[in-house]
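Reopening this ticket.

The earlier resolution said the output was attached, but the attachment link was broken on my side. Pasting everything inline this time so it's all in one place.
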Amino acid sequence: MHAQIALGAEIETQSGSGLEKITLTPASLGAGGALPGISIGGLIPVSKFSCSYQPNSGSSIWTCSGAVDLGSVFGGESKSGEAAGSPAGEGGGSPAGGESGGGGKCNPESAFPTVRLSAGIQINPFALASLGFSVTNASFDIEPPDPLVVVTGFGANFVYEPNLAISGSVDLGAGPCIDGERPFDATGTVTGALGSKGFSFDVEGQLDLNLQTFKTQLAKAKFEYASQYGSTKISFSVNAGLTVDGFGISGNIDGALTTHPFVWQAGLGGQINAFGASVSGQGVLSNAGFGGCGTLHVAFWSGSVGFKHFFSNGQTDWDGCDFSGLYTVTGAGASALGQPRIVLVPRGASRFEIAVGGAGGVPAVKLVSPTGQVVTVPGTPNRLAVTGNVLAVNVPGTRRAYFVIDHPHAGAWKVVPLPGAPEPTSVLAARPYVSPAIHVSVTRHGRRERLSWRLRSQPGQSVRFFESGHAVYAGIAQSSRAQGSVEFTPAAGPGGIRRILAVVSVDGFVRRQGLVVGRYRAPAPFAPAARDARYELKRSKLTVYWKAARARVRYQVGVTFNDRLTSQLLTSRRSLTLRLPAGFSIHKLTIATLYRGRISNVTTAKRVSPKRPRRRRKHR
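Inline output:
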């Protein structure tokens, strides 16, 4: 076998990581996609051949794949369509190597499918890295002779290095034959991976309506299970929708939970579009609280109403469709697969920013404004692209695409995945931070103080108030409301002027701290004390007495003797009598008052002479 083939090379790199992958493919192919002059045993032509090289932690993996048309082998008629896509087995990817089984065409004549094989070899040390196959352009009847369901493709892939991964897929065509095609296509994939970090298991399915004049996705569902570092995460999402001649209806439901820490959440949403107007609603329920909102968009007008309620403090905020603080499971959100994510931009915003994140890299999405303006993420990394009043940039280092909108139109902005692109994992929106302009006042109510505040509220913003003084620093309250009041008891400490400090956080990140927003005069602390303490010493008898404090207290009597020995006695009475050992004299005697478990005051007793009893005169 001798052939001269021109090869094209595709090199992939990642910022900060160097070389990621090199893929070699023929620059020119013969008829039917076959390599010119190349065959197996001189009988079986090879098509769609490619090889890729991928470094892996000091070692390297070569993966090659090629497709064989069984019709050319057995002399039968081949199915229409070609095997396409990336080689199977790369990094535990699609079991069918990225190929699709086709639209479930009705073909009663005998025909042969296309088989694609792939294998990966690890170098240094030498080992089998992956093995996979896929069958496309098939038509296997499930219920002959007049089936309503046929298998149009299936495949499997086994990856051994660097981590074990097994995946499989199946493509189905369903329904009666209409103009030579079956109206429904169903695709399902199952993937399992076992590595040093843990185990993961994913199931994904999709149902499409596939007619000659009308093609659309009807439903998509996904289930994920992952166990890493002793924590388990389970998530699911289901969405369905249909759009015909400007009328569309869609709905979705999703949920997720983790075990360490144990948190959970569930979301529900729906949208109806007709005659240029749209009505949508969404809700979320989690271990943190619940919320719901509705949005109406007609022509250039858009309005929404919504709320969220937190279980921890019983607080209810009317922040429209801002559910920040309710999403407790990372990587899960109330959004539908394959459906646009809606970001509501308020009226009067001078600037608005949207960040869209992906799992394996920067997601391929477009941003659609309420007026119909479309902005697509630029393909060149770290390069700014300006479309109208929107700036877009692709940042591979963060796996995110950023949109910065100058003086945006109010209403619903949509983040839409491009056809065939994976779903974005997160959509974050932010307005420029504005000073909260906090105003507070403190008024006296008996022995308690009342703190009242007024500030500029923003989505995701919370403010914590503290009091600070000499040897005093204590929290007062925390709130995200624009105005309110709360009663508090001044922290224990000396009286006098104390400052009210504010710490401002947005989405859990501190933006301002140590902000002095007010002052008040704290009263001197209530310190009950024993009064007019005295003691008498007659020979070895010691008698101590005092006037009681104006509170329910206990007393600690401390006696210091001439040799500096100290003795302490605890009592709740107002007097005490002791017998001193011979030779002991008193140097100092104190009475400490214990109020609510703390010493509130210490009084030094004075020595007085014992009272002499009166002598009665005898009458003669």
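Reporter confirms the inline version is readable. The CA atoms of residues 46 and 613 lie 130 Å apart. The longest helix spans residues 70-74.
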